[in-house]
Amino acid sequence: MTYTAKDITVLEGLEPVRKRPGMYIGSTDEKGLHHIFTEIIDNSVDEAIPGFAKNIWVTLNQDGSATVTDDGRGIPIDKHKSGLSALEVSMTKLHAGGKFGSSAYQASAGLHGVGASAVNALSSFMRVIVKRDGKIVYQDYERGKAKTKVTETNQIQLIKLLADDHFKYPNSDSFTISTFIPDTQIFKKHESFNFTTVKNLCRERAFLIAKLAFHLYDSATKEECHFYFDGGIKSLVRHLNKNKKPLHPIIYFSKQIDDLEIPVGVEVALQYNDSFNETVQSFANVINTGDGGTHLTGFKMALSRIVKDYAEKNNLLKDFKNNILVSDDLREGLTAVVFVKMPSNNIQFESQTKTKLNNPEAQSAVFSVVKEGLTAYFEEHPNEAKTILDKILLAARARLAARAAKDAVIRKGALEGMTLPGTLADCQEKRPQNSELYIVEGPSAGGSAKQGRDRKFQAILPLGGKILNTEKARLDKIIQFQELKNLIIALGMGIGETIDPNKLRYHRVIIMCDADVDGEHITTLLLTFFYRHLQPIIDHGFLYIALPPLYKINHNKIDKYVYSDAELAEYLETIKNQKYTLQRYKGLGEMNPEQLWSTTMNPETRILKQVNIADAVQANEVFIMLMGDEVPPRKRFIQTHAKMATLDI
């Protein structure tokens, strides 16, 4: 096999993006599809950060395209040194844009000149219209290549270029309008944008940039949303805590740090509430850094330092051995937002999809701002400081009690060879990647599942009824609850401080409950437990919900199983005026082992829904609302959404 110069392939223009889209947008699934949407939205947000844009319009068009418009300065349209229009260079060349230098953008969210061009490369059609310097021009593209020249037009002709009659154009001296259709050759399974996902993207950015208005419209459903917040990240903290009971007013710091190698603008807002859970979000130039990074590290270090110093100074740790507070104590019930803004040509992310910030300057800047601000706040507001410390010390005492319980149940059991729960019918397979655990409601269904399963790789753990609501319980109570104790031991990965995902004994954990109200309640209780205490199982894609059939139809001596009322109506229409028998399953226990295997447990025929966290903030809000102490928000949610509930399979 030869290896010479002719074997070296050079990809021109935007070919690298189409050849390896995952390198630029992370994936080509639904997440990747919405990532390209994010890139275009963030280009508009970049105009709002320094105050050039006041409005962003987002329209989901009926033909599957999307239009994003801002009333900012408009993409430059003058001639670039390459001889092309600056607009064409920005849209068709990798690493070309105004975000490498420091003059055009002090902070930006785009992919450093890759964002718009990457979206262009992954779109079957894209049109960009710009008003700037008294001119209106447009250019069309197809899969990253220019299909027209940069063409000047006028306001009368402009309306004909727009994809949707609902949207006209901004009444401003300058604007940018970008319309694009995701390429089905790239996004083969996910071709349409999700209104809820786009709405969350817009709302999140509206929270971050105070006084920036978002206007979202869906042409197909006629839904529309408008977001505008005066308070910036303080409004976001207030929103995150809306279904919780805050313990003190929101604490807010904002400062520009210019004496580092790279200047960093820091905004931090925090507020403790009476819950047991932490909600901390971090952003860098409006990018949601879901995996944290240096800015979040700086926040946690400063919070830990100031709280411990204040507690020691005021002799609040005298009852604690070695005066130890751990990070979990400090973060129980904490809601916080950490937002840094940095020059776009200096910001560093761990990967192209920007989920983790790497700049060490961000850590120093956030640490400095939080340390200075929180020290002053505690000194000036002793009552609020006492409230916060009381919350933290209560968490520390609960942690010590929980550790004692865990030592008795988990650690001691592991050291002394505690056997697996007697209710568990384990599988023969010992490799986690080939093993699955069915968590089954009730002994009757558990019996059928044990008889019908493939014991080579399927384990069964029956539950004895409804479990503890873990949204309201600390870890020591959870450990003492027998059904949850059995589940924790069966899974094998521990819980709390001892959790180790590498020790998980099954890589498919399947919740299998009845399709009635009680079954749905048990499923929700289990989802709450996994989300709050064993989230790595969800993060790794190991948690599923089994979908048993609702009906069995016998027609011409053949059994047909259907999973919803809609599917039943559709099937009955095909056998209209013919004889058949119909059975409605009220519970899994009504099925014999063979039926349960063929409909719900056989990998060849079963339907499983994989559980994932598409929106962490929304998931957190829903669990608090449905499983928390506050009744009015739960009542409003149920009354509003009861008729909208569907079974999506």
Automatic annotation (TrEMBL):
<dbReference type="InterPro" id="IPR002288">
    <property type="entry name" value="DNA_gyrase_B_C"/>
</dbReference>
<protein>
    <recommendedName>
        <fullName>DNA topoisomerase (ATP-hydrolyzing)</fullName>
        <ecNumber>5.6.2.2</ecNumber>
    </recommendedName>
</protein>
<dbReference type="InterPro" id="IPR001241">
    <property type="entry name" value="Topo_IIA"/>
</dbReference>
<dbReference type="GO" id="GO:0005524">
    <property type="term" value="F:ATP binding"/>
</dbReference>
<dbReference type="InterPro" id="IPR006171">
    <property type="entry name" value="TOPRIM_dom"/>
</dbReference>
<dbReference type="InterPro" id="IPR013506">
    <property type="entry name" value="Topo_IIA_bsu_dom2"/>
</dbReference>
<feature type="domain" description="Toprim">
    <location>
        <begin position="435"/>
        <end position="549"/>
    </location>
</feature>
<dbReference type="Pfam" id="PF00204">
    <property type="entry name" value="DNA_gyraseB"/>
</dbReference>
<dbReference type="InterPro" id="IPR013760">
    <property type="entry name" value="Topo_IIA-like_dom_sf"/>
</dbReference>
<keyword id="KW-0460">Magnesium</keyword>
<dbReference type="InterPro" id="IPR036890">
    <property type="entry name" value="HATPase_C_sf"/>
</dbReference>
<dbReference type="InterPro" id="IPR000565">
    <property type="entry name" value="Topo_IIA_B"/>
</dbReference>
<comment type="similarity">
    <text>Belongs to the type II topoisomerase GyrB family.</text>
</comment>
<dbReference type="GO" id="GO:0046872">
    <property type="term" value="F:metal ion binding"/>
</dbReference>
<dbReference type="GO" id="GO:0003677">
    <property type="term" value="F:DNA binding"/>
</dbReference>
<dbReference type="Pfam" id="PF01751">
    <property type="entry name" value="Toprim"/>
</dbReference>
<dbReference type="Pfam" id="PF00986">
    <property type="entry name" value="DNA_gyraseB_C"/>
</dbReference>
<dbReference type="InterPro" id="IPR003594">
    <property type="entry name" value="HATPase_dom"/>
</dbReference>
<dbReference type="InterPro" id="IPR013759">
    <property type="entry name" value="Topo_IIA_B_C"/>
</dbReference>
<dbReference type="Pfam" id="PF02518">
    <property type="entry name" value="HATPase_c"/>
</dbReference>
<dbReference type="GO" id="GO:0003918">
    <property type="term" value="F:DNA topoisomerase type II (double strand cut, ATP-hydrolyzing) activity"/>
</dbReference>
<dbReference type="GO" id="GO:0006265">
    <property type="term" value="P:DNA topological change"/>
</dbReference>
<dbReference type="InterPro" id="IPR014721">
    <property type="entry name" value="Ribsml_uS5_D2-typ_fold_subgr"/>
</dbReference>
<keyword id="KW-0067">ATP-binding</keyword>
<keyword id="KW-0547">Nucleotide-binding</keyword>
<keyword id="KW-0413">Isomerase</keyword>
<keyword id="KW-0238">DNA-binding</keyword>
<dbReference type="InterPro" id="IPR020568">
    <property type="entry name" value="Ribosomal_Su5_D2-typ_SF"/>
</dbReference>
<keyword id="KW-0799">Topoisomerase</keyword>
<keyword id="KW-0479">Metal-binding</keyword>
